[in-house]
Amino acid sequence: MESNIYKKYKLYRINLKNHPIIKEDYHTKLYYFTILYTTLKQDNILNCYIKNLLDSYKKVFGIKEEDYNKIEKFNIERNKDALNKMFKVLRKTHYKLTKWRIYTKNYKYLLICELMYLESRLDIYEYINKSYIKDVARDLKINKKDLNYVLEFFEKLSENNFEEANEIISKSKFVLLNYFLKKYKDDFEFEKKEEKNILVIATMSSGKSTLINAILGQDILPSQNEICTSKIITVTQNYSLDRCIGFAKGNKEILHSYLNNKILNDWNISPEYKEIEIEGGLSNIGKYKKKLKFIDTPGTNNSIDKNHYKLTYGTLNKNKFDLIIYVLNATNLACDDDYILLNTVAEYLKKNSKQDILFVLNKMDEIDIESNESLQEIYDNAMNYIKKAGINEPKLISISAYGAKLFRKVLNGDSLTRKESIDFLELYEMFLDEQYNMNNYTNVKVNAMNNLIENREENFVEIRKEKISLKTISNILKNTGLLQLESYLISD
Ligand SMILES: Nc1nc2c(ncn2[C@@H]2O[C@H](COP(=O)(O)OP(=O)(O)OP(=O)(O)O)[C@@H](O)[C@H]2O)c(=O)[nH]1
Ligand SMILES: [Mg+2]
Among all ligands shown, which has an atom nearest to the Cα of 207? Predict the structure, then answer.
């Protein structure tokens, strides 16, 4: 049976950036948000889970802090006039005349639908008797017949009956309800997708979390030198999401509908939680037919917390994985701790001969080719090292996870810290140079790589006063080796 927490979590699976109201002016957005918030609050539906989701609406709609503070204190009885004014704005029908027909659009049906969506815990027929739905429908001047249409639409959605849902909203005044139709369709597709489980293992600080962040195209997993992964974190790619959502379980349960690095790190270090699951993803491979599920693990050689070793080995032995990614640190190859891990994995592979495994030689950007170090030598050493552990015909890909992550962040319009900006410029110059093309240091043949290169218009960003072309970043991302790795992930 579906757990309670999972039901709430599913509510967060909505692409807020597609919300139709986003295109409106600030006041329309503010009124819409105010009515949602105050209605739910008035009827005691505003529990912490829904409030958390509304906080994401606030962020995506761009509701100002001072307005939000007012909404929180809003007294419906004392502010009847103000509220009436908001209802009036929202129930207005907008007309758009084109050459062929008149389009109408009205937020009132969307608002009613959204209220039902946010509550989502009721049997569909219970809504009709809920006084707050009736009240809001009255204030929005929605007649009984139209209210029934919206209810019926919502009912069809809950049954995944998209054809009939689509029919109900075929009238032009319901056009905005397509937002919910798309949400339910996306969800249905997502749930149906077969999973591809990928275990990512390595010794500490080899770049496991950085690699997953690069694939996600955002800085979400804790990946700093001081902060290491201390629990098993599952990351599922969900292309239809505009942000990351997630939950943590253990002695306590917690959900979040707009995760960032800081929140995830709090969960990561809190003894209250044992497991973390997150979902999101921006990069192209999210469109792949399978659902990629990465399992980020703690480095196996933490001298302070021996539990990390047990956690990672336990995971390896307890579960089945479609693929294991073993990350090697090019700057610290074959150290004692890695030797222990590699030999354990070699033992595991002997017992599980069909297990697919990919070795990833990371931090190749740190190799200084001008001071007698050659990338080819490092690559050969890594290959011999793996073979010596008794692993036959290992597949090895060279990458710079950090370079790829920074490139993706810039492409996604994220801001960089001071240190990241400095590193970015260095890495940008490095990967412009064909000598640093990581695709030359691999024995894995892929063919889909070129499909993964994003087609960018010629646009520029400024980084530390330097004008950088997004088109060029998109092209040299290939040289970091990440696309090679991603192509492998989506090949069957
Ligand atoms: N130069 C360079 N630095 C990298 C690269 N990948 C990761 N790093 C850095 O290495 C440090 C550790 O990276 P993480 O991603 O946290 O490593 P991890 O394997 O997840 O570490 P644990 O969770 O502690 O086991 C961070 O400071 C990263 O920025 C890379 O490709 N190049
Ligand atoms: Mg980590």
Answer: 1
> Where along the chain do its domains lie?
4-190, 195-489
Rounded CA-CA distance 94/104 in Å is: 5
Cβ 362 under 6 angstroms from ligand 1: yes
State if residue 431 touches ligand 1 by the CB under 6 angstroms criterion.
no
CA–centroid distance, 221 to ligand 2, in Å, is 7
The number of the ligand 1 atom at minimal distance from the alpha carbon of 362 is: 31
pLDDT digits (tens, 9 = 90+) for 225-249: 666 878 889 999 998 898 999 999 9
Protein residue with its CA nearest to atom 9 in ligand 1: 207
Which ligand has an atom closest to residue 398 CA?
Answer: 1
Q: How many A from CA of 322 to the centre of ligand 1?
A: 24
Q: How far apart are CA 414 and CA 167, in angstroms?
A: 40
* pLDDT tens, position by position, 277-299: 999 976 667 677 889 999 998 88
Of 429, 444, 430, 344, nearest to 393 (Cα)? 444
**341 neighbors 380 (Cβ within 8 angstroms):** no
* pLDDT-based confidence at residue 1 (cuts at 50, 70, 90): very low
Residues 6+ apart with CB under 8 A from 253: 5, 247
Name the pTM for this structure: 0.91
Distance 73 CA to ligand 2 centre (A): 42
Q: Give the three-state DSSP class for 95.
A: strand
Q: Which residues of 93-127 are buried (b: 16+ CB within 10 A; e: fewer)?
A: eeeeeeeeeeeebbbbbbbbbbbbbbbeeeebeeb
Q: Is 223 in the pocket of ligand 1 (CB under 6 A)?
A: yes
The topology (CATH level 3) of 195-489 is: Rossmann fold (3.40.50)
d(CA 400, CA 380): 17
pLDDT tens sequence across 55-98 = 999 999 999 999 999 999 988 788 889 999 999 999 887 777 77
Residue 293 CB less than 6 A away from ligand 1:
no
- CA of 400 from ligand 1 middle (Å) equals 10
